[in-house]
Amino acid sequence: MPTPSPNSAPALSPAALARCIPFFVFMALLALRGYLPDSLGLDARWIYGGQAFIVAGLLAWYWRGYGELARQNLPDAREAGWAIVVGIAVFAIWVQLDAPWMQLGTATASFVPLDAAGQPIWALIALRLAGAALVVPVMEELFWRSFLMRWVQHPGFERVDPQTVGIKAVLLSTFVFTLAHTLWLAAIIAGLAYALLYCKSGKLWTAVIAHAVTNGLLGIWVIRTGRWEFW
User: Fold this and answer.
1) What's the half-sphere exposure (Cβ side, CA atoms, 13 Å) at 181?
2) Is residue 5 part of a domain?
3) Residue 180, SS3?
4) Does pTM top 0.90 for this prediction?
5) In a domain, 142, yes or no
6) What gap in Å lies between CA 112 and CA 231, rounded to an integer?
7) Does residue 3 belong to any structural domain of this protein?
8) How many angstroms separate the CA atoms of 229 and 29, rounded?
9) What is d(CA 152, CA 158) in angstroms, rounded to the nearest whole number?
10) 3-state SS assignment for residue 2
11) Could you tell me if residue 118 is left (phi over 0), alpha (psi between -120 and 50 degrees) or otherwise beta?
C-alpha cells in the first residue's frame, strides 16, 4: 500500500463531508444560475427551486450525522428567545448597510421574481422564501459554524466544544463567511452574531434560529418593498 506524502492534505472525514457537501452543491448551483447562457432559453430563476429541494434532500440524507441538531440539543426558551432577538437585530441592521462602499461587487445571480408585465410570480417567491428561511440557515450554520469555525480551532472539529472556541477561529470563519456575501459589512455583523450565539449557548440551534429569523424577515421585507437586490 502506498504511503501518503507527508505534505498531502488529510482527507475530509465523513462528518466534515456531511457538512460541506450540501453547502458546495448549493454554491455550485448558484454559480450555474449566474452563468447560464441566455441562448439556452431557460429561466435561471427556477434553478433556485431546484437548489432548495436538492440541498434539503442532502440535509435529510445526512441528518443522523448532525449530532448538534439532535432533539436533546434543542435550546431552552431563554436561549431560543435570545436567538430570535439576535435574528431580528441582524435583519434590522442588514437592510441599512447597503451603501456602495459596503458592497463587494454585485451578485452573480440576480433574482427578480416578476413576469414581463411586472407582476409577482408567487410560485417563485414562495420557493425563494422557503429556501432562504428554512433550508439555507441549516445548511450554512452546519458549514460555517459547526464545521469551519470548529475546524479552524482544531482539525478534529467534532471533538471541539463550541464554548471553548477561541477568537481566532471566530474571526477567521467570519472573514470567509463575509467573502460569500455581497454586503460585506452586514455579513461581518451577522457572522459574528451567529458565531457568538453558538459559542455562548453551545447549541447550534441558536445560530440556526437566529439565521432563519433574519432570512425570513428579510424575505418578507423584500417582497413588501420590492427591493429585489437584497435577494
Assistant:
1) 22
2) no
3) coil
4) yes
5) yes
6) 8
7) no
8) 19
9) 12
10) coil
11) left
Task: For 183, list phi and psi in degrees, rounded to 5.
Answer: -85, 90
Number of structural domains (the chain) is 1
Across residues 186-206, what is the average pLDDT?
A: 98
By residue count, the chain amounts to 231
Backbone phi, then psi, for 120, in 5-degree steps?
A: -65, 140
Helix, coil or strand: residue 114 = strand
Q: Which residue has the higher pLDDT, 39 or 104?
A: 104
In terms of DSSP H, where are the helices of 63-121?
77-94
Nearest to 173 by CA among 157, 75, 37: 157
Give the Å distances, CA to CA, from 25 to 57, 125, 169: 11, 21, 24
In a domain, 1, yes or no: no
With H, G, I as helix, E, B as strand and everything else as coil, classify residue 216: helix
Residue 18 three-state SS: helix
Q: Which domain holds residue 209?
A: 14-230
